[in-house]
Amino acid sequence: MDCLRVVLSVIIPPLGVFFKVGLGLHFWINILLTLLGYVPGLVHAIWIIATR
């Protein structure tokens, strides 16, 4: 299941975080990071998926 989340995160980083943590704080942080730049959002998404 984490492989699917990683693939979703590569396409749309907040989507992978949403499926992992829901509409929590990390989801909104990821939206902000993705708006500031794709790479920070992607790194944050992979980090959240890998550590939880």
SSE map:
Blueprint: H1 2-11, H2 13-21, H3 25-36, H4 38-51
Structural key phrases:
52 residues; mainly alpha; 87% helix
Written description of the protein model:
The chain is mainly α. The chain has one domain (14-51). It is 87% helix and 0% strand. The protein has four helices and no strands. It has helices at 2-11, 13-21, 25-36, 38-51. The longest helix is centred in the C-terminal third of the chain and has 14 residues, at 38-51. The radius of gyration is 9 Å and the shape is globular.
Number of domains: 1
Largest sheet: none
Radius of gyration: 9 Å
What is the number of helical segments per DSSP (H or I, 4+ residues)? 4
Tell me what portion of residues adopts beta-strand conformation: under 5%
Number of strands: 0
Helix content: over 70%
First-last Cα distance:
13 Å
Unreliable stretches covering 5 or more consecutive residues:
none
* Class by alpha and beta content: mainly alpha
